[in-house]
Amino acid sequence: MSDKQMHPCSCTVEPAEEYALPGDRMRQLKGALVRSVFRIPGMDCPSEEQMIRMRLAAAPVAAMVFDLPGRSLVVDHTGDPAALVALLEPLGYGTALQESNVLSAGQTPLAAPDSDAEAKVLWILLAINAAMSVIEIFAGWWANSAGLLSDAADMLADAGVYGVALYAVGRTAVHKRTAAHLSGLLQLALAL
Asked: If you write DSSP's letter for every residue of 20-35 in order, what string do you get?
């Protein structure tokens, strides 16, 4: 049975798909789940991974697994994989679809990202950077070392970035974009 609806003018309309936060994506996606593997030669660092995540945030994606050293991306999604390629091409990383298959009943879907685990790691990194920043400020002041003081400022900037990243964990793409802008402004302010 089709989800298409008939309009008075005899045309058919596909219902709009609802997009939710990553943990709810599996229930919201309609249609067969497809696993696609993309080769992305220009993706080799976490910032490019984040650009790709933001680009695919509104797409019907259930989960993604990035392999930065292998420069590949595995995506569980619904719909045409060519639509994902079209979303990724403007980034200029050289996206190519390697394979795409409908998941069978026996195949396990990729796990959606765990926001709690991400937040825990970010809290640990924030605590380490904040503590090291304070230690280096006092050590730099005591030793009269400009090197330690500048490294303390760098650690403080990192702590600020992790704090802003905590704000974005588990939120929508709009919040993540806002957090990215705030993070950039924070780093710019500390650089001055």
From this structure: --GGGHHHH--S--EE
- Identity of the amino acid at 23: G
- Return the structure tokens found at 20: 């939710």
Instruction: Give percent of the chain with pLDDT exceeding 70.
Output: 78
Top-confidence residue, 186 or 112: 186
Q: What is the DSSP letter of 8?
A: T
Tokens of 162: 């992790």
What does the block give as tokens for 155?
């650690």
Of all helices (H) and strands (E), which one includes residue 111?
none
Q: Which residues make Cβ contacts (< 8 Å) with residue 20, sequence separation at least 6?
A: 27, 28
Token look-up 């490019």 returns 48
CATH architecture of the domain covering 5-102? 2-Layer Sandwich (3.30)
Which stretch, 54-63, 68-77, 104-113, has highest mean pLDDT? 68-77
| Distance set, CA 124 to CA 112, 120, 127, 163, 166 (Å) | 22, 6, 5, 11, 11
Predicted confidence at residue 149, as pLDDT, reads: 92
Domain ranges of the chain: 5-102, 115-191
The torsion of the CA quartet 48, 56, 165, 146, rounded to 10 degrees, works out to 20
